[in-house]
Amino acid sequence: MAKLTINEDACKGCSLCTRVCPKHILELNREKLNAKGYHPIHCINMDECIGCASCARMCPDVVFTVER
Ligand code: SF4
Ligand code: SF4
Predict the structure, then answer these.
(1) Which CATH number fits domain 3-67: 3.40.50.2020, 3.30.70.20, 3.20.20.140, 1.10.10.10?
(2) Counting beta carbons within 10 angstroms of the beta carbon of residue 30, is it exposed (0 to 12), middle (13 to 18) or buried (19 or more)?
(3) Rg of the chain (C-alpha set)
(4) What is the C-alpha to C-alpha distance for residues 8 and 24, in angstroms, rounded to an integer?
(5) Among protein residues, the one whose CA lies closest to atom 4 of ligand 2
(6) CB-based contacts of 58: which residues, under 8 Å, 6+ apart?
(7) What mean pLDDT do residues 16-37 have?
(8) What's the whole-number mean pLDDT along residues 17-33?
(9) Where are the domains of the chain?
């Protein structure tokens, strides 16, 4: 069971992580703006996350914390 924590306010909306997630569960939240004024990343189906940490390795802004 993986636990993904997302620090939304650290996200700059670059979308790099959305391309590397093997489960395609990361999307920019177009309905929200974070503290920096970007549409932040969110996870559309937390139950599908396998904890591979590809997103955490890819993100230049350390938005993700993955615990397994
Ligand atoms: S840990 Fe892996 S499966 Fe989970 S959101 Fe990140 S890239 Fe996707
Ligand atoms: S890679 Fe990081 S900064 Fe870029 S969209 Fe994903 S979470 Fe946001």
Answers:
(1) 3.30.70.20
(2) exposed
(3) 11
(4) 18
(5) 14
(6) 16, 17, 19, 20
(7) 98
(8) 98
(9) 3-67
Look-up: residue for tokens 């189906």?
45
pLDDT of residue 64 exceeding 80: yes
Q: What is the mean pLDDT of residues 13-36?
A: 98
Q: Report residue 18: phi and psi, to 5°.
A: -65, -25
Instruction: Please tell me the pTM assigned to this model.
Output: 0.96
CA of 62 to the centre of ligand 2 (A): 8
- The amino acid present at 65, given as its one-letter code, is T
Instruction: Kindly state if the Cβ of 42 falls inside 6 Å of ligand 2.
Output: no
Confidence of residue 27 (pLDDT cuts 50, 70, 90): very high
Helix (H, G, I), strand (E, B) or coil at 58: helix
Q: Is 61 in the pocket of ligand 2 (CB under 6 A)?
A: yes
